[in-house]
Known about the structure:
The structure holds 3 protein chains of 3 kinds.
Chain A: H1 14-23, H2 26-48, H3 80-86, H4 88-116, H5 118-132, H6 136-147, H7 151-178, H8 181-188, H9 193-230, H10 241-248, H11 258-286
Helix pairs in contact in A: 1-11, 2-4, 2-11, 4-5, 4-7, 4-9, 5-7, 6-7, 7-9, 8-9, 9-10, 9-11, 10-11
Chain B: E1 6-17, E2 20-32, E3 37-41, H1 48-55, E4 63-72, E5 75-76, H2 82-91, E6 93-97, H3 100-103, H4 110-120, H5 125-138, H6 144-148, H7 157-168, E7 175-179, H8 187-204, E8 207-212, H9 215-221, E9 224-229, E10 232-238, H10 239-244, H11 249-257, H12 298-302, E11 308-310, E12 313-315, E13 348-359, E14 362-374, E15 379-383, H13 390-398, E16 408-411, E17 414-415, H14 425-430, E18 431-434, H15 438-441, H16 448-460, H17 464-477, H18 494-505, E19 512-516, H19 524-541, E20 544-548, H20 552-558, E21 561-566, E22 569-575, H21 576-581, H22 586-594, H23 633-637, E23 642-646, E24 650-653
Parallel strand pairs in B: 3-8, 3-9, 6-7, 7-8, 15-20, 15-21, 18-19, 19-20
Antiparallel strand pairs in B: 1-2, 1-4, 4-5, 9-10, 10-12, 11-12, 13-14, 13-16, 16-17, 21-22, 22-24, 23-24
Helix pairs in contact in B: 4-5, 4-7, 5-7, 7-8, 16-17, 16-18, 18-19
Chain C: H1 2-16, H2 21-26, H3 32-42, H4 48-60, H5 74-109, H6 114-128, H7 131-145, H8 161-196, H9 198-205, H10 210-222, H11 224-239, H12 242-247, H13 253-262, H14 266-294, H15 296-299
Helix pairs in contact in C: 1-14, 5-6, 5-8, 5-11, 5-14, 6-8, 7-8, 8-10, 8-11, 9-10, 11-14, 13-14
Amino acid sequence: MSGVALGEAPVRAPRWETLRLLARSPAFLAGAAIVLFWVLCSLFGERLVPIDPYAADLLGTLDPPSAEHWFGTDQLGRDMFSRVIVGARDILTVAPLATLLGVGLGTAIGLVTGYFRGIIDNLVSRLVDAVLALPLLIVALMALVALGPSNGTVILAIGLSFTPIVARTVRSAVLAERELDYVAAARLRGESSGHIMVMEILPNILGPIFVELTVRVGYAIFTVATLSFLGVGLQPPSPDWGLAISENYGLIGGGYWWAVLFDALAITSLVVGVNLVADGLQNALDQ
Amino acid sequence: MTDDALRIEDLDVAYRVRGRDRQVLRGLSLAIGRGETYGLVGESGCGKSTAALAVVRYLPRGGRVRGGHILLDGQDVLTLTKPALRQMRARSVAMVYQDPGRALNPSIVAGRQLAEVYTQAGYSAAEADDRALDMLRRVQISDPARVMGRYPHQLSGGMLQRVVIAMALAVDRRLLILDEPTTGLDATVEAEVLDLIEALRAEFSTAVLFIGHNLAVIARMCARVGVLYAGTKVEEGPTAEVFEQPRHPYTVGLLRCLPRRGRNKHVARLDTIPGFLPTAPDLVRGCVFTERCGMATDLCHDTEPPLAQFGDRFSRCHYHEQAPTLPRATPSELPVAASRPLTRVPVLRVENLSKTYMVGALGVAALRDIEFDLWPGETLGLVGESGSGKTTLARVLLGLTAPDAESIVQIDGRPLPDLAARRSPAQIKALQIVFQNPDSALNRAHSVRRIIGRALTKLGGLRGDAMRRRLLELTRAVRLADRFLTARPRQLSGGLKQRVAIARAFAGAPRLVVCDEPTSALDVSVQAAILNLLADLQAERQVSYLFVSHDLGVVRYLSDRILVLYLGRLMESGPAERVFNGPHHPYTEALLSAVPDADGRIARIPLTGEIPSAVRPPRGCVFHTRCPRKIGRVCEEEEPRLLARDEDSHSIRCHLPTPELGRVRADLAVPA
Amino acid sequence: MTLFLLSVLVFAGGQLLPGDVGRSILGPLADQRAVAVLDHQLGVDRPLLAQYGDWIGHFVLGDMGMSYIYRAPVAPFIGTALVHSLKLGAVAFVIVVPLAILGGVVAALNVGRWLDRVITLTGLSATVVPEFVSGIVLILIFGVWLDVFPITATWPPDSGILTQVYYLILPSVPLVLVLFGYIARMARAGTVTALDADYTRTAVLKGLPYRTVIWRHVLRNALLPTIAVVATQAGYLIGGLVVVETLFHYQGIGGLIYAAAKSHDFPMLEAGVLTVGVIYVLAALGADLLTVRLNPRLRFGGAA
């Protein structure tokens, strides 16, 4: 009988291929290692450090690095090393939560505007454009000055300021998908709009959404650190890196470099790590 | 012969995919003499495009030549230095490929791109412009000066392909390579482009390598043909001989798959070639076609057949003399048809159907005054070129867009709401569609089971065990093996995907299925299987089809009645055989003559000009601007009415009286 | 349309900031009646719609109201700050755009090879490092240890253009780093798409030399999307410089907005934010116009 399948061997399940590709990429592995390190620090840091990060020693302020204090001490005599290790915790809680908020909300908005188009889409898009006209930082800044800085409000502010960008990305992905025939086929089955958006279109755009997520986490970390630096993010006595830098950078002129350099390096390593992971994922998914 | 324009010897080409080498061409050898035309034929994946790219040394990233020689005019292309290679590309060989719109740079005017060829050949800028103008005239562009200044997106498909041909033949070439140059063009435009290529070739005595999958086009254009399967050449010889007396089982199979004149679904089934392309052809020990060959023996499994020569023909088969006796893969007997239900009311009745789009303030009539009846178990073929409105008609019937107010659409005698959202579940499941492109028609994130299952739940109202049972019934009916149920679309071949789409459409036991070019994206052998499937399903369930296709052979095979559309108007409607054999509308006549036929040649009736824009349709009869049988003023001023011409409800919209609507008028035909 | 919405947003946002205006100015110890009088004088007890209309009307004419804190017209503050930010932004722009485009194109021409990976990864890494981090590292290295560049961007009055640029180089580097990756990635993507296109194949098969193919055929299609992207960065380059300005003690508009937000100086705040938004929208408009001009498909209509 014609066509009774002498079939082709199906292509190996795509997910395993992706993992294999990732495992072979040195950039991805390096990034993942760094991120993993900091995650461990944030989870177990307090138990691992030798000296209490909050303990002030007013006799030993601004000591350069030594055998006892590997990274030296800050203005209040607190051990820099411990503070650097523990400083990972807040940033690694706030940034991912903010990202999840932004991506979740943005996806919902993007789906609805991309699918329905028409007036809603026009209005919302204009709104999005208007909000995007302002640099992210300014918006977050204003929000935080208004709401008062705390972990919760930082999450809210950053999450909400990510929403328009994510919404726009999701919207263009949806616009492309809805032209495909399977969407027409679904409509011809009498499927409701909600069903089409969530069950038909959404699974196909998870790829770009996921990529957005990983990229946004990087930006979230960036923004949390910057906001702390400006004083509207996390508050003292948190050992957060951005905060520490803002507390101490005036001292650079006096040659007290250790008070800022290590925090700076910590931030750099974390953001670079996150982005290497994001880039690796993006490349692997592109194959 | 040292006088050969092109000589390929033992060419091996492989692609590197994810760290592994996949061999695409194996030991390919062919020779094209000066001024000769050679056709390279095969289905997708056979390697023919790779051969073309190898000749100009432009294999995509990851492609490598592993052995062999390519001698163009005596020089080995593969050993040329970079400057010499450029010289060769500028002077000796040119390539024209599919999709002319993409072949031209969208940011540079057509004229400059053409003139570039001349400046590269050494002419001054002013001379180059002059010659470009002249060349555009040679390719029958009526207003060359205007076209010179236009950007590619401002030109139509046919015109673009002419510009590309002009670029190719701008300077005298030894060899012109054409890779599916007319795929995607309308039939009448295709015919003109092929005529043009013929004429220019004769004038310049350029050798031509014509690559394609359409046997009819190759038969028309090429003196010799080579058949390629899985990277190996399996047969070669003068075209007419090879097609009339094929001597390789693959060629035999291919020719049997084609819907030909005289065959239709009531007469016999199309034969098919079972199985699929081997995934690793270089690992096959014996003959590469063994798995799918109906007369394979142990000898075929173990030893690769040598290239047998007889006269000026070659065949790579142990049993080439017995090839024509290849047993059929598909029995030709038709299944027992269910009895046609006796109804007085047609499944679908359409009257006065019009659809007007608003473009700014202007109304564009995509459809005007369409009327037809469709009975159970009947196939209505919809024929027309771009701008004819056939897609719009399909969309209107399905409820994806609403027709104009005065249109009447009735299903089973009752009015059908214009939009799908307003239809009852019963109406929705009665009207389903099979799309052209199986890749976009199936949700790539869902498994086959889910795709069909969802349709069963939503359209058939089935759940749980009942649904599962019906699912298996459906997949068996479309001959889809059980193990594909868990697969995702990307793991399936085109033919398999289309089976899934068909199963999905039949989930709710529809009364009418719209088939929108369902086999256009498939290979010939797969197409035959799908057409058989559609015919079988129709016979078993007495379902009606609205079959849209640009391939007249396919339409002829499946259709009981035909509608011919031009610029949104119904030009002719009637039983298939009547419409095809005549008397028929002048447009139908020209269309039929434009289609190259593997069987024999019909005298061509050329149509002048381009399809007019739908925004400003011609007054009177819309076809009069191109009609070779125009009577005179009456055609320009008064639109003819659709009149029945005989008792078989065969209607034609033309001012000419019935006796004059005959076959080809000798003085107008171009000799074959 | 966007501008209108923007102005509404800004106004609304300003209104959301907590704290009564009069009270902020006079301080927590002032008498309640005095606060009410001041509020009335400032007009903040009028209906919102009237306030908005008043504000917008004046803004368009250049009058941005009076700063609560300084008791002086806002406009000159905005003006000077804007000029400062523009200078800094311009220096960064002039450095980063050619560099990034070059980087992206070179990466695309060497896709998959080490040069490509290096450029891409460098760009990527540089982008995510917060400006204050890179700023501080740069200050440490070039300002303190090597002492090549000044560490605050305050040049002596009446300095010539070159001196000003000299002072601005160090602050512009963090900006360059942040933008490089993004622009280079767009340039690279556009070039890769163009290289794979059929028309590039046609050009090569005409026998044209490689350089001509790239220059004449590939680039103009490759860089079209990049232009739009570059323009959108303009908004950031004007208003998003808060951090750099703080680090280098530079009076730009970002810092002005920040200070205004902290001190609840609404007129200053709103004027500042709206100005930044306006500039961004103008830049986007400019980019759109440029794109239409350069893309023949948009410039001339459909099939003839």
